[in-house]
Design brief:
Number of domains: 1
Distance between the termini: 17 Å
Helix content: over 70%
Structural class: mainly alpha
Number of strands: 0
Strand content: under 5%
Shape: elongated
Largest sheet: none
Amino acid sequence: MHKGYLRTAAFIGALSVALGAFGAHGLKKIIDEHSLNIFETAVRYQFYHVFALALNAVLYKDFKNKLIEWAGFLFILGILFFSGSLYLLTYKTAMNLEGLNWVGPVTPIGGAFFIAGWICLLLGVKK
């Protein structure tokens, strides 16, 4: 088992629950519905990929190869880029900030990391 990925999944999972609670109880009072939906999408995809990362860690025991290792790394990058950029967009709205225009185009890069991670996982278990 890849303990590093499993520990990371546990930490990011706890963070997902905390952020979800913050969104449900704190954010809805200060941002509009559209921005809240963006935040909820970030939390949802972060949490989905906690399970992907945990699965990856468990599968590593039987399928030790670089593709499985890359899958875990790509899931983490996907969380950082996809969910992270959506969190920044929500922050920008909540604080009425100008700028941060570069954040929007980062989201699809995170999505590409997620897709690449899933493809690596598929190919890694086929080896």
